[in-house]
Give the backbone structure.
Amino acid sequence: MSLVDLTPETLASRVDDLMDRARADLAQLVAFPSIHIDPARADASRASAEWVARAFSELGFDTEVIVTSDGSPAIVGHRAGPAGSPTVALYSHHDVQPAGDESLWRTPPFELVEDGGRWYGRGSADCKGNVVAHLTALRALGDGAACNVRLIIEGSEEAGGEGLDELVRTRPDLFDADLILIGDTGNIAVGVPTLTTSLRGVVNVKVTVSALENGVHSGAAGGPAPDAMAALVAGLASLRNAAGDTTIDGLRSDQKWEGFAFTPEQFQETVGALPGTEVLGSGTPADMAWARPAVTVIGLDAPSTDECAAAIMPTAAAMLNLRVPPGTDPRESYELLVAHLRKHIPWGVRVEFEPDAFGGPFSADPTGPGYRQLIDAMSTAYDGLPVQFSGQGGSIPLCTVLAETVPRAEIALLGVEEPMCAIHAPNESVDPGEIRRTALTEAILLSSFGR
């Protein structure tokens, strides 16, 4: 079949015919508990990587599984297009988050189960659903790609991705492309074509407060004795004001988001807020989630309520996750956070900080030639609907590394992870229609890119 025969209608029909295979592919991938941070799952991670490499090799890619510096298996590959044609790179990751408390799942986390029109399983959306979208697009194309295609499938994105970041810096030739499609985001709602143009950066930091050599009886010493937990809680409370705005001394927190924005009611429904709760902050939900910094307590070392004793805690610790918007340096933000907590944690207690997982923010320019072709392809795949531009409060540090290492490349973010997917949570799921539309978008783009 010649390139001119690959009309959007032809590609749509092919993608439709491939959806049963897409489900079978995803079922096989979800069955691998490829959790990089769990050493006991190393065999599953290797098996997942080998499955991915084999699947793309069958489509004509020269693939290689590379064990990166953090021990994770990444898959890179290349398939040549017509002589002199440009290059599109397809990215996703095959590692997943832990299942967590499996009693909270309605279905087995590592078994793909269809329920209510959605496909459930850990990684079904984040990010094995995007791997399957890439595969489905390429199968629909056959040998009809108008460009070279590179492949980048990461094995430790959920753990910070340091291994692939280093590989990009040491082997930039493997990632050189005119357009890089980052398949690790999604639409603002099912069926609404969306490109993500902004990502917040990230800093994780452990804060440890020490006040006593040992715990002391709360009846004998409660009142005058310095209390590590109370001191830590006081410091953490200073990180937000009464409205919910982030209030780290010296860190700007009044930015505005220009573009698509949720209403407060839509946002509340999206996050599953309980009746009567408020949307935090003095800005819109989009301002707060995409354009401004936010700090979240994601871990707390404290006795459980079932095992506690009447004692004043000598030490207490919290893990903080600080997100910073484009234009804000994460390391400078970390220093401001440290200075703020040293000032606001009271009573002269000892405070120690352990930073981890610095990742830069990212902002894309959607006006380049690659973006224009992608926008046209996406709108066509969604029956002519206009493409929306959104931010994402999460972080993909790889985008910053790619922008620095391959400066000529346009970097675009898309995928199957719309708000109902519950990524990182129990009962993760994907709408198969999102896989279909994402695959069709990519197939239309690759059939004509650079022509």
